[in-house]
Amino acid sequence: MDKQDIMFAIMNVEEFPTLPQIITKIIDACEDEQVTVDDLAKIISNDPSICARILKLANSAYYGYLRKVNTISKAITILGFETIKTLSISASVFDSFKKIRSNYNFNRCQFWLHSIGTATICKVICRHIHNHDVEVVFLVGLLHDIGKLFFESYYEPQFEEVMKLVTVNRCSIYDAESQVFGVTHDEVGGWLTERWKFPLDLVNPIQYHHDVKSCPEEYAQFAAMVQVADHICRIHNIGSGGDNLIPQIDPAALEILGLTMQDVDDISNKVTDEKENIFTFMAIMD
Asked: For labeling, which of 45, 152, 230, 242 is most exposed (least CB within 10 Å)?
């Protein structure tokens, strides 16, 4: 299969997944300093699915708010604009692929659990290194493997071959993708999020999370956090990334983050405390 054919398909074929226009409106509103809570609430109120998930999150143990939250405006006040943007994008991507028949060799529930686990661990790393872009890196972690879901949804026979190689050769899904498609999920994820017109601070880290040295410098920390979080998530067996291997961390990722392997172990030890949050977010998305 030709890499250029896949890139052309993602950028041009109409039936490939698109996100509703409301997501662009929510992203723009959340990034506009002039937009008020009520302005954002009016936009969100046009999408019942997003509304329901926002209220679920605001009323969950994840935030521990003591009084019942029953309006979108109140939920926005509690959660903040960045969390609203993260949840809205997450819900929309989740729903876009939920409509597509799943490949029986690929467990989507375990895929999303791994994605949410990686995203949550990204937050832990972000706080550890005192980076304040917590919601951005959460979203990058959540969508880092979206290219796998694209392969599974739209190239079923070829993806069957990928999964067969993973099982028979006990290789990584990354290596199997390269062999079958001539391109891997990270690059495809970059193309897909570019088509969705996502900001570059999401597109670039997704595209380069396996190759942090090639990531533009201003986004390299995000890509490096995802790589480390993916490693930790697999150690804890949270969901599945499609194979049973634990990828090694590129020393360049540690250097970019200013971490040692001892730091990675320390971060890993905090993951048990985050598992309830991981399953809470999974329940909200489902």
From this structure: 45
pLDDT, tens only, 244-283: 999 999 999 999 999 999 999 999 999 999 998 899 889 8
Domains of the chain, CATH where assigned: 18-99 (no CATH), 103-285 (1.10.3210.10)
DSSP state of 247: P
Amino acid found at 110? Q
**Structure token pair of residue 178:** 């390269």
Phi, psi of 151 (to 5 degrees): -55, -50
Report residue 235's pLDDT band, with 50, 70 and 90 as the boundaries: very high
CA atoms of 82 and 85, how far apart (whole Å): 5
For residue 196, report the phi and psi dihedrals to the nearest 5 degrees.
-75, 0
* pLDDT tens-digit readout, 73-104: 999 998 999 999 999 999 888 888 877 776 66
CB 207 within 8 A of CB 187: yes
Short-list 255, 235, 257, 260, CA closest to 245: 235
Poorest-confidence range of 6-10, 11-15, 66-70, 272-276? Answer: 11-15
For 9, 81, 186, the CA distances from 15, given in Å and listed in that order, are 10, 31, 21
Residue 285 near residue 88, CB atoms below 8 Å: no
Using alpha carbons only, what angle is made at residue 209 by residues 206 and 215, rounded to the nearest 5 degrees? 85
C-alpha 278/C-alpha 62 separation (Å) is 9
Q: What angle (nearest 5°) sits at the alpha carbon of residue 49, between those of residues 43 and 52?
A: 90
Neighbours of 101 (CB within 10 A): 7
Structure tokens at 97: 């692929």
Phi first, then psi, for residue 146 (nearest 5°) are: -60, -25
CB contact at 8 A, 228 and 261: no
Distance CA 219, CA 274 (A): 25
